Amino acid sequence: MAALGAPLRTLRALLRELRYAAGRSYRDSPAYRHVVAAFRAHRVTSEKLCRAQQELHFQAATYLCLLRSVREHAALHREYHGRGERSPQEVAGLVGFRLPQQPGGKG
Amino acid sequence: ERKRFYQNVSISQGEGGFEINLDHRKLKTPQAKLFTVPSEALAIAVATEWDSQKDTIKFYTMHLTTLCNTALDNPTQRNKMQLIRAAVKFLETDTVCYRVEEPPALAELQKNEWDPVVAWAEKRYNVTVGSSTSILGPNIPASTKETFISHLASYNMWALQGIEFVITQLKSLILSMGLIDRHITVEKAVLLSRLEEEYQIRRWGNVEWAHDYDLCELRARTAAGTLFVHLCSESSTVKHKLLQD
């Protein structure tokens, strides 16, 4: 069985990721309601090793990994890969030049 | 890049399964089929992906949507057997079976990290896999391949698309089965898949805009694929136990 840690920790991290993804109204989102309901439904069990509980925990941990990685990937993309090329004006400005103005258009 | 053109995302249940509504429009696949998924949890996750888009729609972050589209459209037009064979073929070049001899530190790391998961797979599926340092890769017996083929045949077409996707991402059938069987977490599977890169990073340093970027992308795709497989192959029933006084 995968080393998952405490279900409560996974649940809290998952709800935090949902909050980052959705914003203000995250508590009304179907995802939030589904996750909370699923955890509540599997909480009460007399068995020490409840297979369904472990399956749910693994699914929750996987979904948490998905949300977290997508958010981190998007942040890295914005930071390093999002800016695109500089315009000709900006390139000229780097070395202190300005592009010539040609009132009649080029050539 | 498309702007977000919808306010609300909601789910509804149709004849073929669960559908996604963007405002009043029903979501369609790239081949214009109606977007239906068999599992409510999967539909909710897809709806969350669409709802998470801010000003522009970044399709490259919507891995579950992409997987559903692939399952619905089947653009490579492969049938179940072709998918299974493509998946099992990866075993011949499975990452965890391909070992180096040099540098010794890396060879040792591979032995310590990969041997346990190969042993787990051999025990779990009652097969021989082994590992190899030869350039030709490990010699996988036909009986091993047959075992995996018949095991994968027990999954439905949607789950198989997901399984094949995860195998292609991790470059390993063994690691993918470890994930499907919940033996290892996504983070661990990705770490094992990238073992040599992690070794080099520890040796030469980490380059955030390349290494972390790739790491996050691989984690996202693998997590999406694994979740997709589990959501497409589960059937959950709630059994209420009688309270004992």
TrEMBL record, chain A:
Q: Which CDD domains match?
A: Complex1_LYR_FMC1 (cd20271)
- Going by the entry's taxonomy, the superkingdom of the source organism is recorded as Eukaryota
Q: Which residues form a coiled coil?
A: none
**GO CC term, one of those recorded:** mitochondrion
Pfam families recorded for this chain? Answer: Complex1_LYR_2
Q: Which InterPro entries match?
A: FMC1_homologue
Q: What this chain does, per the record?
A: Plays a role in the assembly/stability of the mitochondrial membrane ATP synthase (F(1)F(0) ATP synthase or Complex V).
Family of the protein in this entry? Belongs to the FMC1 family.
The molecule here is called: Protein FMC1 homolog
TrEMBL record, chain B:
What family is it from? Belongs to the ATP12 family.
Where found? Mitochondrion inner membrane
Protein name (Swiss-Prot/TrEMBL): ATP synthase mitochondrial F1 complex assembly factor 2
Which Gene3D superfamilies does the protein's record reference?
ATP12 ATPase (1.10.3580.10), ATP12-like (3.30.2180.10)
Biological role stated in the UniProt entry: Plays a role in the assembly of the F1 component of the mitochondrial ATP synthase (ATPase).
- InterPro entries on file: ATP12_ATP_synth-F1-assembly, ATP12_ATP_synth-F1-assembly_N, ATP12_ortho_dom_sf
Give the way it sits in the membrane: Peripheral membrane protein
Subunit text: Interacts with ATP5F1B; involved in the assembly of the F1 component of the mitochondrial ATP synthase (ATPase). Interacts with FMC1.
The entry's cellular-component GO terms read:
mitochondrial inner membrane
> Would you kindly state one Gene Ontology biological process term found in this protein's UniProt entry?
mitochondrial proton-transporting ATP synthase complex assembly
Keyword annotations from UniProtKB, A to Z? Chaperone, Membrane, Mitochondrion, Mitochondrion inner membrane, Transit peptide
In terms of superkingdom, the source organism counts as Eukaryota
High-level lineage: Eukaryota, Metazoa, Chordata, Craniata, Vertebrata
